[in-house]
Amino acid sequence: MKAGILCVGTEIVTGLVMERNAAYLSSRLAEEGCITKNIICVPDEAATIRHSLEFLLGDSEISSIIITGGLGPTDDDITREAVAQVAGVELFFDQESWERIVGFYRSIRYTDPPRNNRRQAMMPLGAQVLANGKGTAPGFMVEKNGKKIIVLPGVPIEVEYFWETVRKLLPGKKRGTFFRTQVLKFCGLGESRFAEMIAPYLSGMPDSLKAAYLPRYGEVWLYLYGDIQGDTARKEALQRMNVIAEHLRSYLFSGFGNTLAEAVGNLLVSAGQKIAVCESCTGGFLGEILTEVPGSSAFFERGYITYSNRSKVEDLSISPLLLEEKGAVSEEVAEEMARNVRSKARTDYGLAITGIAGPTGGSALKPVGLVYLSLAGPEEVSVREFQFPGDRETVRKMSVHSALSVLFFTLRGSPHILLGWEKDKTIRMRGGERSRGGPEE
């Protein structure tokens, strides 16, 4: 069972909007044993939509086609017209859909919809209408060449709403043969080192199984997949993943949450602890990531954006003499930031970031990408030095993910694990210096 996905929107192909629906749908389809063979993004042009749809219809391996976007009320929303032309049918005005649109509009705007919303009630003749509980545009399904064409609005939250309906429309009573294991997510490792560490546990796999790696700013995600008949290869894949999870348990965060921020949040909550953060070069990004977690008030106390030296002095009581002597981007200032934010917030942990995100501001002694992270906890204060590559966005993202990794390892009882891009020097701790590394767990 294979599918094709067609994403419609000029805003996508011109880079104005990042396409999210294909990733969501292909992931969900994989859970149903259906691999996505093609993902095509096209502008709001009738001819291009038609040609792309005809291409997918002509693929004998594809049994379902999902189209997103182009169902709005404006003149450039022409997906319904293009699909009707390919299906060889006329459009008709669906009164029931219009009544739902009016009811939805009144429920959120307390007024009737503009007249151009009537376009959204136009349906290809013979289509199965799919009611939308999250927006005005209904979806629909038509059949052509024995294939199902499922057409959805382009708003991601609406696509997610439609998933259960889409799942039930997939052809066939049995699951497909495509299989994918649960995704294991690891932090504090680069892709190359990670691949070396797990290589022994992937050797000798049957040809039907393959490994997929996804590096993401200081994280690596792993899963096994394949076009598998029977249960033997499935069981072997699960067994191998269990062995890898056990071998790299110190780095595995997905056992505690879907994101690294969620994982550290759950660990803090389970321990009855809270954290406060202070940020310089990341400008509040760390606090944003932590507070994206639902229920974050249970573990996140407060955050400070101390971008200037003046703010560091006034908000965190950093010594002006220390700033003058060592500079804002220094091991000593990072440590005092972490200590002071923990003290001021009266939390169990204080986490600080200070660095040079670039593209300007660096020097021979302190180049762009130099970042210090400090974590002050109940037992000790650690400071780590990093030299991150890449542009401003990369440095900021790597800083935040590294800070969360340091916190995760500490909460898991492995505070000395070495992270990627970390300078090869001792980790300074309160009460003296302890050697780096320690045994890999």
How confident overall, as mean pLDDT? Answer: 91
| Class computed from helices, strands and strand pairing | alpha/beta
- Count of all domains: 3
The tally of strands reads: 19
**What is the CATH-assigned architecture of the largest domain?**
Alpha-Beta Complex
Strand content of the residues, in percent?
Answer: 15-25%
Morphology call:
globular
For this structure, what is the CATH homologous superfamily of the largest domain? CinA-like
Structure explained in plain terms:
With 441 residues, this protein is of the alpha/beta class. It has 3 domains: 2-169, MoaB/Mog-like domain (Molybdenum Cofactor Biosythetic Enzyme, Chain A, 3-Layer(aba) Sandwich), CATH 3.40.980.10; 179-247, 2-Layer Sandwich (Alpha-Beta Plaits); 260-434, Maf protein. It contains 14 helices and 19 strands. Strand 7 and strand 8 form a beta hairpin. Mean pLDDT is 91; it is low at 431-441.
